[in-house]
């Protein structure tokens, strides 16, 4: 794909002195301690073919100057008996030697391509999300001493002479910083290992540059997107002393990773998460833009706090947070709505024929009316708020504008479970009530994401659930409803 300048350039990293010296207590003559020299494009392709596979320049590489110092990218393939090629991954030339060295490990790759494991379950590697900030994951750990061997500081190293070489990276098994030309042609030192920890049972984990096998699988999954610079990427690797099935080993590794990431965040160190596999998303029709509608000088004042929730939803990082941000812009007005509803009910009682301030029965009736208002549930308050802000005609126009594009989404066959259906036709509750019930139901599934739904019994909805990828129609609906609610509580700007 065409090479483009990044939206965000990493903050400059401090270059290390040329003479870094060997890691502590590492045999300087051990060839596994030094990264192998980078192969040229032709040499890398030939080496892969000699190993029984096939390789060709990747389309990522098409627009890179063949004679530049920037990394070259290669697509790797298995060749079947019938000559059919099966993709194995995409790697830069400097990782090919490590990839060939890792073939003897016979790693088993998950369908998502974002986790690999050994057949005995003793080795697991999970890809860490590169995030969207453009910041180097490895640079987050720059405070650690890059001159010392992190692996040899592990308590297990004393009883395991091979401990320093337990984990592979795309640069071999060294934990020394390496100098590499990145995607933009700048040469700088990069550390290969950021963190290495172990427990009393001999299990170890490490955050480091991905192994070549993991990196190749990741870039195959990410093909079609601008690739993350490999020296800045990271994976979390595990070595378990006890054997198990691949499935159980990966689940165990995921639990440990989640626990470690929580602790790092709680300590204020780093915010990390595992990279999620891309989910199959249903094709969505683009939201139509009505360019006949032009901005105007605001004829009214809307509440700036409600507006901040509404505007912020567009920048929300996940569908769930976008939905909640729109919901909060509606929920903000619940106290005002409750006040108006209470006043209206009390006013009806007071002005009702037969009401007499001198009559105790009339006063008790007034007190009961106030008590009913004070004892309302939040769901009832939300229902009253939408009844105030949406007329029947407006509710039908709002709902129809979304339903016309997503025919079955809000009905019985819709993809979102545990929420109310919405139907315009038939003997149903009023449309405003149906809309309010669905919006509130979905809100409860998000905020009550507890084990077994908490005290409400609501089925939780987590960011990784497949249903999250189907939320676009509900997000559009709550956005349109929020627009009407915010407008309903606006005040005229007489100076406009």
Describe the protein's architecture and organization.
By secondary structure, the chain is α+β, with helices and mostly antiparallel strands. It folds into 2 domains: 31-266, no CATH class; 300-492. It contains 12 helices and 13 strands. The strands form 4 sheets. A 6-stranded antiparallel β-sheet has the order 4-5-6-11-10-9, sandwiched between helices. A hairpin with a 5-residue loop joins strand 7 and strand 8. Helix 7 (334-351) packs across helix 9 (378-389), helix 9 crosses helix 11 (431-447) and helix 10 runs antiparallel to helix 12. 33% of the residues are buried.
Keywords:
alpha+beta; three-stranded antiparallel sheet; disordered N terminus; 2 domains; 12 helices; elongated; 496 residues; six-stranded antiparallel sheet
Helix percent reads 25-40%
Strand segment tally = 13
Low-confidence spans:
1-35, 143-147, 280-284, 450-456
Order of helices and strands: HEEEHEEEEEEEHEHEHHHHHHHHE
Provide a quick synopsis of the model.
The chain has 496 residues and is α+β, with helices and mostly antiparallel strands.
Write the layout of secondary structure elements.
Blueprint: H1 41-50, E1 54-57, E2 73-79, E3 85-92, H2 96-102, E4 108-109, E5 115-117, E6 123-127, E7 178-181, E8 187-190, E9 193-198, E10 204-208, H3 212-221, E11 235-239, H4 246-266, E12 300-301, H5 304-312, H6 319-331, H7 334-351, H8 360-374, H9 378-389, H10 392-403, H11 431-447, H12 472-488, E13 491-492
Antiparallel strand pairs: 1-2, 2-3, 4-5, 5-6, 6-11, 7-8, 9-10, 10-11, 12-13
Helix pairs in contact: 5-6, 6-12, 7-8, 7-9, 9-11, 9-12, 10-12
């Amino acid at each position: 794909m065409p090479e483009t300048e990044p939206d965000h350039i990493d903050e400059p990293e401090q270059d290390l002195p040329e003479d870094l010296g060997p890691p502590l207590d590492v045999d300087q003559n051990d060839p596994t301690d030094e990264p192998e020299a980078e192969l040229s494009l032709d040499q890398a392709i030939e080496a892969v073919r000699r190993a029984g596979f096939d390789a060709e320049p990747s389309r990522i590489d098409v627009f890179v100057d063949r004679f530049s110092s920037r990394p070259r990218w290669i697509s790797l393939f298995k060749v079947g008996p019938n000559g059919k090629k099966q993709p194995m991954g995409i790697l830069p030339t400097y990782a090919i030697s490590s990839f060939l060295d890792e073939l003897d490990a016979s790693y088993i790759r998950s369908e998502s391509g974002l986790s690999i494991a050994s057949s005995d379950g003793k080795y697991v590697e999970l890809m860490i999300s590169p995030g969207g900030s453009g910041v180097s994951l490895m640079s987050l750990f720059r405070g650690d001493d890059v001159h010392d061997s992190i692996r040899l500081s592990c308590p297990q190293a004393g009883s395991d002479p091979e401990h320093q070489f337990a984990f592979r990276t795309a640069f071999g098994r060294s934990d020394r910083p390496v100098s590499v030309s990145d995607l933009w042609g700048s040469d700088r030192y990069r550390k290969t290992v950021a963190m290495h920890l172990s427990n009393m049972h001999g299990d170890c984990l490490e955050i480091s540059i991905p192994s070549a096998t993991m990196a190749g699988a990741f870039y195959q999954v990410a093909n079609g997107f601008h690739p993350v610079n490999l020296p800045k990427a990271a994976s979390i690797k595990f070595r378990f002393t006890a054997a198990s099935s691949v499935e159980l080993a990966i689940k165990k590794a995921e639990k440990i990773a989640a626990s470690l990431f929580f602790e790092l965040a709680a300590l204020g160190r780093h915010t990390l998460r595992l990279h999620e596999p891309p989910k199959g998303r249903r094709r969505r029709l683009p939201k139509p833009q009505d360019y006949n509608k032009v901005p105007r000088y605001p004829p009214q004042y809307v509440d700036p706090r409600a507006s901040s929730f509404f505007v912020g939803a567009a920048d929300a990082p996940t569908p769930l947070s976008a939905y909640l941000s729109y919901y909060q812009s509606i929920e903000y007005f619940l106290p005002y709505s409750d006040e108006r509803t209470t006043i209206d009910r009390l006013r009806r009682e007071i002005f009702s024929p037969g009401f007499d301030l001198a009559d105790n029965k009339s006063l008790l009736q007034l007190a009961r009316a106030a008590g009913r208002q004070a004892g309302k549930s939040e769901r009832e308050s939300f229902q009253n708020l939408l009844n105030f802000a949406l007329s029947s005609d407006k509710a039908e126009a709002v709902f129809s504008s979304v339903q016309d594009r997503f025919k079955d989404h809000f009905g019985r066959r819709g993809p979102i479970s545990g929420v109310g259906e919405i139907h315009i036709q038939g003997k149903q509750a009023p449309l405003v009530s149906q809309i309010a019930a669905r919006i509130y139901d979905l809100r409860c599934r998000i905020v009550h994401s507890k084990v077994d739904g908490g005290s409400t019994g609501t089925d939780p909805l987590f960011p990784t659930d497949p249903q999250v990828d189907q939320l676009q129609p509900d997000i559009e609906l709550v956005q349109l409803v929020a627009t009407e609610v915010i407008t309903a509580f606006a005040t005229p700007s007489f100076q406009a």
